[in-house]
Amino acid sequence: MFFGEYEYTIDQKGRVTIPPKFREAFKGGIVLSRGYDKCITACTVSEWDKRAEQMSRLPMTQSKARRLNRATFSSAFSLDLDGQGRIILPAPLRDYAGIANEVVVAGVRDSLEIWSKQAWAQEQEMMSEQVWQIAESIEDRT
């Protein structure tokens, strides 16, 4: 399980460090793609496979399903961590997420999200104001 938030700076080659406590989970590779909220989603290969399987069940006769598949898979990159636990953030994903120098890597249960520091601050502000309303509006599924 991934949790917590970690601040890093992108180096001159466009690399970001994966928090040390999560590196073992990504030893088999890491898949990056566009997140739904202007961030980059980072999954283990097995988690990516689960998500791909779920999306394969969407009816391709519906335009929303086709667009979601395009948005998800056309932006995906399969990478390996280097010897220092870093990955290159591909330019299309950096541009999408508005990432220039400083990022926040946030653990989100089964994946990581990589945010520009500024966008993360905005997301945090929104969450602090609305999380109780969001929690109340979600049906209890336990």
**CATH topology type:** Chemotaxis protein chec
Mean pLDDT equals 94
Q: Give helix % range.
A: 25-40%
Q: How many domains make up the coordinates?
A: 1
The backbone outline, from C-alpha atoms, is: globular
CATH architecture: 3-Layer(aba) Sandwich
Would you write up a description of this structure?
With 142 residues, the chain is α+β, with helices and mostly antiparallel strands. The chain is built from four helices and eight strands, in the order E-E-E-E-H-H-E-E-H-E-E-H. The chain has helices at 45-56, 63-73, 91-97, 117-137; strands at residues 5-9, 15-17, 30-34, 40-44, 77-79, 86-88, 102-108, 111-116. The strands form two sheets. Strands 1-7-8-4-3-5 form a six-stranded antiparallel β-sheet. The protein has a two-stranded antiparallel sheet with strand order 2-6. A hairpin with a 2-residue loop joins strand 7 (102-108) and strand 8. The longest helix has 21 residues, at 117-137. The two termini are 19 Å apart.
